[in-house]
From TrEMBL, chain A:
Coiled coil: none annotated. It comes from Solihabitans fulvus. This is Beta-ketoacyl synthase-like N-terminal domain-containing protein. It holds the Pfam family Ketoacyl-synt_2. Gene3D superfamilies: 3.40.47.10. Residues 59-154 form the Beta-ketoacyl synthase-like N-terminal domain.
UniProtKB/TrEMBL annotation, chain B:
Belongs to the thiolase-like superfamily. Beta-ketoacyl-ACP synthases family. This is Beta-ketoacyl-[acyl-carrier-protein] synthase family protein. GO terms for molecular function: 3-oxoacyl-[acyl-carrier-protein] synthase activity. One of its GO terms (cellular component) is cytosol. InterPro entries: Beta-ketoacyl_synthase, Ketoacyl_synth_C, Ketoacyl_synth_N, PKS_Beta-ketoAc_synthase_dom, Thiolase-like. Keywords: Transferase. Residues 4-363 form the Ketosynthase family 3 (KS3) domain. The lineage of its organism: Bacteria, Bacillati, Actinomycetota, Actinomycetes, Pseudonocardiales. Signal peptide: none annotated. One of its GO terms (biological process) is fatty acid biosynthetic process.
Amino acid sequence: MNAPTRDLAVLARAEWPTAPDEALPTVAGFVTSNFSPLVAEVAERCLRAHYGETPARAGERVGVVLASVRGDVTTASTLAEAVRSGSRVPPLLFFQSNPNAVVGHVTARWGLGGPVVCTSPTGDALADGLAVAALLIEEGDATQVLVVAAELADEDTHDRAEAVLVGPPPEESLAGKEFR
Amino acid sequence: MVDRARVVLSGFAVRSAHGSGQDALLAGAFGGTPAFAPVTRFDTARRRTDTAATMPGAPRLADELVGAVVDACADASLGREHRAGTPLLLAAHADHDNTATALEVAARTGLPDPPRTYTAACVAATSAVADAAAMIAGGRVDRAVVAAGFLVDGDTFAVFDAGRALAADGHVRPFSAGRQGMLLGDAVAAVVLESADSARARRVSAKAALLGWGRTGDAYHVCKPRPDGEGLARAVHTALRRADVPAAEVGYVNANGTGTPQSDSAEAAALRQVFGADLDRIPVSSTKSVHGHALEASGLLELIVTVLALRTGRLPVNAGFLAADEDCRLNLVLDGDRRLRRDRALTVNAAFGGANTALLVGAP
């Protein structure tokens, strides 16, 4: 089930970082953790590569799948430490403690009104995200899907993310598949 | 869209602060008795409220998920011989331990390793249900098990308190004047979904049909819902069109109704967009008012509540109501005597990031 059930057209790709010393832009309202800025930046690069400028054309049925095996471990550990030590819990952690928040940032900026799906895959995050996207497209829930796979650094890796904007194969008609 | 399989719900299991099993849920949630009480699982001394709807003790998520999955499979008469080829889709809070939990649940229940855990906050479980239904309807699989769990913990309680999301008065009052916010609640639930042909071949009586599903995004804000409810309305329209059911045929709406001022008014606006004047006669309730908000598991708990309404004809109460709010003009179920008069019911959920889902269920 981790592989897409059929080919998808890849409309754009992006990744972060693209250089060893690249600095991650901050995102207003998100603090402490690189997770949300990482997702926002790679999504921005991918969408800009396809759409040019905001908003997305026909964005009402463009979905987003955010796949991350470990999720925002920095926000989770910051929250846990605040609770353990009895110190004040930063209110901004409230919304960024779930992955939907940064997806809301991306969809609001680009006018993407399709399904919002966030997952913790047990295997390869990008491959699983593409499998989820394929189902959304095949079943007529979305015409295009932005798939983002993002992982924060651990002992062996640095922060990294990849985004792919996919649509149906060019020869495939969406007629009769639209549930609007 | 030819040869689409009809999706049915052939078994379910539920655990919440009301107890374990459908009888406990019917007695507590349908009777309009809130299960909220002071939390003893962790220290709440530094928080604005001490209240949640929790099960006794400090249950472990993987153990509870295993119990719910085993119970749901038993309810669906799904033996070990069928489980090996039945995908498992889980929903839980985004956590670095999700993979370990998912693999443990699969190993202990005889189901294949899940591909993923759905983590999209308050629509996590319903997203998993929608994917399972899509796989079955499209003929990719004969059946799937969906399980979801949220157990109130000190970190989540603290961050919801910090975000001023919790009702300081200790009551959840969906769509009511004077509502102050949500309260958290435990829930662990599982459902077996399968094609009607598969259930028939196994000689299993379906509990309900999953007629339609829809999901959309608001494209509006990081955490606020779109005030006019347009995104949620599109999700409901999608579910109705997929089911080929007119809006007027819906006999009950289990609302998202968190008890939060902005969210409830946006949801009421969405329902008005979909149902128009018919909304004045369609009963609506948010059972978060009795079992609390189970976050990633809320949608599955509320799907089961909705199925129980269909099966029993009873309508669950929207507790905590004080007085009407002009921004939430709904036909709320305010006492336990109301009966469901049609055989289709809708459950809707909405989450941070503007994520919306709608599930339409009907008689099998």
